[in-house]
Write a structure and sequence with these properties.
Layout lengths: L5 H20 L8 H13 L3 H14 L7 H33 L14 H75 L1 H20 L5 E3 H19 L3 E6 L8 E3 L3 H12 L7 E10 L2 E8 L6 H4 L6 H13 L3
Parallel strand pairs: 2-4
Antiparallel strand pairs: 1-3, 4-5
Helix pairs in contact: 1-2, 1-3, 2-4, 3-4, 3-5, 4-5, 5-6, 5-10, 6-7
Length: 334
Amino acid sequence: IEYPGADKLLLLWIVVAVVTSLRYTLQRQDGWSSTDWIFLLAVAASFAPWALLTRLVFRLERRFPLGSDRWGRHAGILALASVPASLLGSALMMALFGWVASMAAWEKPARTHWWGHVPTAQILYWSSVAGGYFLRTRSLLREQERRAARLAVEKSQLEASLKQAQLEAIRARLNPHFLFNSLQNISAMTKQDPQTASRMLARLGDLLRTVLKQDSHPESTLRDEAELTRAYVELERMRFGERLRVDILIPEETQEALAPAFLLQPLVENAILHGLRGATAEGWIRITAGIEDGMLVLRVADNGAGLPEEDLEGMKLGVGLGSTRERLEAMYPG
């Protein structure tokens, strides 16, 4: 808690003393005299001890804070402490007032005993208590605001880290799934066409280098996605030959649009493995991109037989489609 220093408190109490003195002096009808200046100076000097006493009161209020659960007990302690503080304050005030008056050779009114100013000292004491309570409460509120802001930043960073970890976990499921299916296809080709299987294995190595290089980036441009998808399609064409045709139609205006990295490959793989399963004629897959209502729309369509309508309801998504849906929801909620 930052309390004002003794110099600022001294200035504050001098201002209070001057304002208090002027209120009485200006009410006089006989005009301003040198005596009034001496009186003003003496009153200002008498308030000076409260620059130090107020700092003591601040510490006392901090030790026994008002507004806490034990405010009643603390208020009683502060009330007891007000007695010696007011007696000391009153004595110092009258001593300084008399000293300034005597230095100016002022014939002041009949002397009043110092304990007669204890009520004034009580007012100053409880004003200091109220000031300490205000400063402490304001400091606590500011600290709470700073703590809330810091927690909000930490929460945002934690959510971002968790989101990134979630995306990496989903991506980690996709890569082995893709690798397992590719190796399974190559294994099947080794008996039928060893040379094609060898070329597929070499192409798979090139493709994996590209996939692993992109692991650290959650998004990539559609241009890069298209290149990655073409590399995968070339791998599959070695197996299907002329029976597989894939058209990738991405307009120039969407080439630099960002999408989740490794997004199209699982959809194309899904279309090849399931959409074209059992097809005897040429299998055709078309990938299109466009801007509709300010949103990027990607479509992967095939000319396969598709699933029976009764199977669409309650269909359980596999690793490819399920992970793709999770990634989209995590990166772009809703």
